Amino acid sequence: EKGTYPHFMLKEIDEQPPVIRKIIQEYQDDHDNIKLDPEVRKAMLDSDRVYIIAAGTSYHAGLVGKQFIEKLANVPVEVHIASEFSYNMPLLSEKPLFVFISQSGETADSRSVLVRIKELGHPSLTITNVPGSTLSREANYTLHLHAGPEIAVASTKAYTAQIAVLVILAVDTAQAKGINLEFDPLQELGIVASVMESLTDQKETFEKIAADFFTETRNAFYIGRGMDYFVVQEASLKLKEISYIQAEGFAGGELKHGTIALIEEGTPVIALSTQKNVNYSIRGNVQEVEARGAKTCIISIEGLEQDTDTFVIPHVHELLTPLASVVPMQLLAYYAALHRDCDVDKPRNLAKSVTVE
Ligand code: F6R
């Protein structure tokens, strides 16, 4: 039920802080340590390479998850779009572990990969919001997202839940390997939940930015580097699917290799800067597009901000920034769709779970 909310999407955006807290609770033992199915831990430890398979928003969560698993647990990861896997099947390592990320657990493109790799005898883990779903039943192991039903076609709380569970998976593997992490992941996730709350409390700010940037335009660009590049890809998908604005998320460094030709007088460009190592370069990209007439907006994070930034996200751990930075992006897409009179919860041509290949 929507309750007092005008749309499920808005309700689900607001549910993100409690979902993160629920995940912390579900994956925590009595001593505040991470609690994970020992079989999943063993599968991670036994594997020499993780292959993440997903579609759409879940694929975008996988791109972030790869960073966690590689940086924290030191296990190599490849992320593949499910529908491409059969044509562009990579050479597999000796001991692959396949990780399927799927809100619904019913995505046919992902399932066809699961069927194929099972024939090859490889182990599989499904990370899903629906434990009894096809992908969950057919894989060897399941991790539950605990996000509660997601009704709006545009995925929001499932994306952040997927990222949170991927952090837990990565940290658990790291700890099992005796790698010493210099932060308390569950505590940092708790901070993220509070920051998300402060963001969802500032809806008018994002409504205004959306009105200003997206009411009239036919196209829009998001730019980011490093971790932010993954989030801007998700930001542009959100905007596309519910507002029908032609949007693209670019890596800042790629602009000069072609895409900057698309910038005209008034083209909206939203830049995201939450990573210290790219803060300087992404701001350089903003100046480059501004010089060509773009209408720009910078969303940054506490500690890296400048006076002219449109919005500054409160501080969260640098690895966990996608959990916070995606919230303004979801709200921008939501209000863009609203201002353009689009059917927010049921965008044209889309289904919530895509059960055909
Ligand atoms: C976007 C969206 C889709 C899904 C994709 C995969 O907002 O909802 O891109 O993420 O269809 O669906 P699941 O995660 O159910 O496999």
Q: Any overview of this molecule?
A:
The longest helix is centred in the middle third of the chain and has 20 residues, at 157-176. This protein has a 5-stranded parallel sheet with strand order 2-1-3-4-5, sandwiched between helices. The chain has a 5-stranded parallel sheet with strand order 7-6-8-9-10, sandwiched between helices. By secondary structure, it is an alpha/beta fold. The two termini are 30 Å apart. Helix content is 46%, strand content 15%. The model has no long low-confidence stretch (mean pLDDT 97). It is globular, with a radius of gyration of 20 Å. Strand 4 (124-128), helix 7 and strand 5 form a beta-alpha-beta unit. It contains 13 helices and 10 strands. The structure holds fructose -6-phosphate. Fructose -6-phosphate binds at residues 55-58, 102-104, 107, 110, 154-155, 237, 241, 353-354. Its EC number is 2.6.1.16. One of its GO terms (molecular function) is glutamine-fructose-6-phosphate transaminase (isomerizing) activity. Residues 40-179, 210-347 form the SIS domain. The active site is at residue 352. This is Glutamine--fructose-6-phosphate aminotransferase [isomerizing].
